[in-house]
Amino acid sequence: MKWEKKLELLSYIVFDLQLIHFNDIIHCDLHSGNIFQNDLYNAYIGDLGIAILVYKTLDKESKGIYGALLYVALEALQGSPFTKASNIYSFGMIMWKISLGNYVFSNYKNNDSSLVIEICFKELRPNILKGTPTCYAELLKRCWDKNPNNHPSAIEVHETILKWKNSTEILANFLRSDEKMEIEDNGFDNVKDSTIHTSYFISYINQ
Asked: What Gene Ontology molecular function terms does this protein carry (predicted)?
């Protein structure tokens, strides 16, 4: 998929997230498995009601959360409530997956406790591919920042992607990067693909 189509797809997804946040709703299980498509270049966010219901139930009765581990924000893994900023972290992972066309941490061993520690305390993130447009890489890093206060809002992300799409100069840079991006080892030689889109109970790291 060329960058022009990747940006089109991302603009649909983050516009949906912007509408969700505008209504003061927080998605409690946002990951690429909950992104549904009418066609290859159109998408919308699903599984919203189920995610909220499960999260509220767990919040009262357990010492953990329900979600797809690799898309859950750091603060949520440590026991803080999901927030709009948490959703932006998850969207950043979706951005990375679309940029590569592959699973996040797709080769990491299915070892939840060690992976949570790496993410929370060693700032483990996927490698950004060589040749990725600089503006895209910088937005990714802001979405992944360990401090949720530094995450952009859904409105800002949507406006940024629209600016890229509508600028001939910026879009040309994206299109040139199609030839420069190199698929390389993502640095996680050790999660099996079956775990990537699976939501399940995750114990808080501080328990």
From this structure: ATP binding; protein serine/threonine kinase activity
